[in-house]
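Inputs:
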Amino acid sequence: MANIGYIGLGVMGGRIAARLMDKGHTVTGYNRTKAKAQALLDAGMRWAATPREVAASCDITFAMVTDSPALEAIAYGADGVLEAMAPGKVFIDMSTVSPITSQAVAAQVSARGGVMLDSPVSGSVLTLEQGKLTMMVGGDRDTYDRVLPLLLDIGPKATWVGGNGTAVSMKIALNLSIGVQLLAFSEGILLAEKSGIDRKTAVDVFTSSALASPMLGYRGPFVLRLPDEAWFNVKMMQKDTTLALEMGRTLGVPLPTAAVANEFLTAARGLGLEERDCAALFHVLAHLAGVSA
Amino acid sequence: MANIGYIGLGVMGGRIAARLMDKGHTVTGYNRTKAKAQALLDAGMRWAATPREVAASCDITFAMVTDSPALEAIAYGADGVLEAMAPGKVFIDMSTVSPITSQAVAAQVSARGGVMLDSPVSGSVLTLEQGKLTMMVGGDRDTYDRVLPLLLDIGPKATWVGGNGTAVSMKIALNLSIGVQLLAFSEGILLAEKSGIDRKTAVDVFTSSALASPMLGYRGPFVLRLPDEAWFNVKMMQKDTTLALEMGRTLGVPLPTAAVANEFLTAARGLGLEERDCAALFHVLAHLAGVSA
Amino acid sequence: MANIGYIGLGVMGGRIAARLMDKGHTVTGYNRTKAKAQALLDAGMRWAATPREVAASCDITFAMVTDSPALEAIAYGADGVLEAMAPGKVFIDMSTVSPITSQAVAAQVSARGGVMLDSPVSGSVLTLEQGKLTMMVGGDRDTYDRVLPLLLDIGPKATWVGGNGTAVSMKIALNLSIGVQLLAFSEGILLAEKSGIDRKTAVDVFTSSALASPMLGYRGPFVLRLPDEAWFNVKMMQKDTTLALEMGRTLGVPLPTAAVANEFLTAARGLGLEERDCAALFHVLAHLAGVSA
Amino acid sequence: MANIGYIGLGVMGGRIAARLMDKGHTVTGYNRTKAKAQALLDAGMRWAATPREVAASCDITFAMVTDSPALEAIAYGADGVLEAMAPGKVFIDMSTVSPITSQAVAAQVSARGGVMLDSPVSGSVLTLEQGKLTMMVGGDRDTYDRVLPLLLDIGPKATWVGGNGTAVSMKIALNLSIGVQLLAFSEGILLAEKSGIDRKTAVDVFTSSALASPMLGYRGPFVLRLPDEAWFNVKMMQKDTTLALEMGRTLGVPLPTAAVANEFLTAARGLGLEERDCAALFHVLAHLAGVSA
C-alpha cells in the first residue's frame, strides 16, 4: 500500500480518493474548500494546507480540477505542486484541460526532476461507482508501467496513449461525441414523436438499439424529464467542445458535427439552460420543433 | 409451425428466411433474381413465380426489399401482393421505406380485408447471426400480438410502436444517427491522430468508451481499413438520411446534425465512394484534414 | 410585334405578360384560376381555354408556374402544351422546377419538332418593376439568339448558359444562397444586438457594407418587422433549397451551408412561419437566442 | 489641418496614413518594422520611435494593428500609447480585435483622462483606393462628433454604433458573413458546373445577380484562379470568425452558418491553404466534389 496525495476533492475527485482509501492506501488530500472534504477526513484522510504540501508528503500525487486555469492555480506559485517536484516524484493529473496547458505543466515537472502523467477518465460518477471507470494515460511509458497497479485500484482498465498531453487530447476527442450523439438522438426522438410514436416508447426503442452508446443509455430518461441536478452541464460540455474546436483549428482537422452541436449548446445558454445537464440539447431542439419538452 | 411467405431474399431477407426455416417453418419465397435464392431452394424453400403467388400460398407473408419503389413494385399490379390480400391474410413488410408509401400500401391491404404491419429491423447481418436482431412493429395491435411468436423466431425482441407507418418512421429516426455518430467518431479519431496518438490506439480507446454504441463498435476497425464489402453502403445510407430529412421538413423537425452528415455522404459520392461502407465518412474527413485514410 | 402566349398569370407571370403587352405584343393567356387574370383581360389580353390552345394560337409560348408537378400539368395530357408543339413552335418555361423535369419536357417538345428553352428569372417583383429583371436561358443556342429581342422586352439582360435544363440548374444554384445569406445576416445582427448595438443601426450598417447583396438590401427591413405579405415564403424557399440538395446528392456536390439553412427553414415551419417571408429565418434564430424578434 | 499620429503602417494602415497626408494633415507615424514605412517617410511623414512618442506628439492618434495581442503590445508598457494619454488626447483604434480587449484598453485610456474610440473599417484596400471605405465607430458620442471631419477625410461615411467596443463587435458581426457567403457561392458554382455550365459563365451570372454582394463581386474571379497574393487570408479570416464564435458563446447567440464556414476554413488549413485568400473555400469544396479547382 502506498502513501498518495489527492488534490481536488469534488464530485469525481472525492470519490476516487475514497476509492483509493478503500483499497488500503493512505491518502493526503487538499481541496480549495475544505468543508467539502469533511466526509473524507472523517473516513481517515489526512489534510494538507496547500497543493505543495500534498506533493511534499508523498511520491505520487493525483489531481482532478475543473479546467486549465484551475490546473495552473494548483501547479504554479509558492504553494504549487511544482515547488515539491523532485526526482522520484510523480504527478498524475486526471483533469480535462487544454493539451497545451498540460504539456506546459509537464515540462516544468520534468525540469524539476519529477514526472507528470495526464490521465483523464472516461465515464461518470455512475461508471466509477460501478467500478468501470477507465483511464487514458499520457507521458513517460516506464512511469506508466510503474503506477499502473495504482490506477487499476481506481478502475478496471487504463490505456497508455502516448507522450505528455496525448491523454487529454484523447479525452477531448472522445467528448466531442457527447453533444453530437445527444443532438442526433434528439432529432430522432422528435421525428418519432411527430410521427405519432409515444416519446417514452421512442426512447426505449432507441436505447435498446445498436445506436445506443452507454452515454445515450444513461441520458435517455433525461429527454423525458431533464433532471434538476446536472451530470455534466451545458457550460462544462461547451468548455470541452470549445477545446476540441480550438485543437481542430490548430491541427487542421475540420469538426463539422462538433461545430454544429456547439452552436446548439450556445442556444441552450441563450435559452437559460447553461447550468442544466447537456441533455438540454433535446429541449432546445424541441423548442424549435414547436413541441413542449 | 406455420406456412409463411418471404419476398425479397437479399443479404438480409435471405438470412431471415433461412432462420425461419431453421425454426421449422415452411417458407415459400420469391426474389426478383431467382439465382440468388438457390441456396435457400437447396435447403428446402418452396418457390413462387410472383409476389402474388407467395401471398396466395400462405397466411403470413414477409417482405424485405430495397426502397419505396421496390415495395410498390411487389405490392401493386397484376402480380402484386395486394391481389392476394383477403380477410385472414397478414403482410409484414420489413423494408425501410417512406412512411407515406408504407401507409398507402397498408390502406390498400386493409381495403381488401387483410392486415399489414410494418416491421423494419434494427441491426445488421452480424446482429441477426448472433440472434440479437430486434424489430419495431407498426399497425394493428391485435395482429401484432398474434404474430409475435413468429417474430420472436427471428430475433429476441419486438416492440409495437404504434399505427401503420410508425415502425418505419422509428427506423428512419434511428438510422439518422448512424452517419452522425460515424462522423463525430471520425472527427475524434483524426483529432487524436493529429495530436500524436496512434490511430489504432485511438480507435481502441473510443470503442471501449461510454461513447461507443454497438454500431460504432462494429465499425471501429473500418476506419483502419475500409472493407471491400459494404455492410451498409453510402448510397443506401443516404437514402435513409434523405427520408429522414424529408420527414423532418414535412413534420417541422429540424435535423441539423443529420443534414450535415448527409452532405458528407454526398462528398463521399463526389469522391467516388458511393458503393463503399458508410464508414467511408472517415475517409472523406481524413481527406479534408490532409491525412491519408 | 409578335403574337405570343403566356401560361401561368400569377404574381410574377401576370406582371411579365403585362409588360409584354405594354411593349406592343399581342398576348394570349391562360391561368388555372381565370378570375386572377381579369385585369390582364381588361387590358386586352386574349383568353385561351387550355394550355394547348395557348400554344396553338402563337409561335412562342411562355410559362411561369409554381413547381415541377405544375409544369407537368400544363405540358402533358390532352389539354397540354405538348399537343400543340410542332416545327416552328417555341416553348419558353420561366418556372423554377427540377432540371430533370425540365429536360424531360424539353425532350418531348423536341420529339414533336418544337424547341423548348428554360428561362427562369433572377429577381423579384420589385426588380421586374424597376425594369431590372435578368434571365438565364438554357436550350438551343440559335433559338435563343432568335428570341433574344423578345426576352429583352422583359428585362435588360439575358444570358445563355448551356443546354436544356442548365438555366433552371443555374437558378437553383443561385437561390440556395438566399437562405444562407439571410441566416448569416441574422447571426450578425443578433450578435451586434446582444453586444449593445441598436438593431436598426446594425441593419443599416450591414446593408451599406460590402456584404450587402441586393437581396439582403431588400430584406434588411424585414428583420425589423416581418411583413404580412411574403415576397418569397418559407415553403417556396424550402422547395428550391430542397431541389438544390437533391441535385447536390445526385451530382456529388456537398452543400454544407445550404443544408444547415434548410434545417432552419424547417424550424420556421415547426414554429408556424411557413407562409411568411423567408426573412423569418431571423425570427427562428432570435427565438434560440432568447431575443424577441 | 491637424497633427495626427498613426501606429501600424501595414497594407491598410499605411494607405490610410498616406490618404490623411494627401488631405493636408501632418502625420507622425510608428511601425514595428520601420523599413516598411519608407515610402511614407519619403512622402513627408514624421517618425516616432515608440507608440508612446506618437501619442505624445499629437492630440489624435490612430492605430491599425493585426490582432488583440498586437493592440495590447502598442497600448501597454513603458513605450505604450497609454503612457501618453491625458485629458484632451484621443486614441482611435481601427484594428479588428476582441471587443473585450478593446474595452479594456478604452477603460485604461479613460483612467488617464483620454478618450478611446474603436473604429474598424468596412472594406478592403480596393474600397479605400476608390474612396469608398466606411467606418463604424464606438465610444463617446461627443468625441465622435468632434473627430468626424477627420474620419470623413478617410472615407465617405462613418456610423456611430454605440459605446466602447460596439464598433469592433459590429465589424466581427459583419465579417462572419464573408466565409459563409463565399461557401454558399462556391456550393452554387460547383452545382452549376456539375450541371454542365461553364464555370466562368456561372460566376458571371452569379456576380450579376441579386445575390452578389460587393464582396462576392470582388472575389468572383478568385474561384477561377486563386490569386498568389491574398486579400484576406484564411488564417486572418478564421481569426475573425473565431472571435465571432467566442462572442456567440458568451452572449448566447447561436451562429450555425458561421460555425460551418469556420470548419471549412479549418479544412483549408488542413489542405495547406492557410496563407491563401479566403476564396480558397471554393477549392476545399471543389476538392470534396472531386472537381479540380
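The interface with chain C takes residues 256, 260, 267, 270-272, 284, 287-291 of chain A (CB under 8 Å). Flag for discussion at group meeting.
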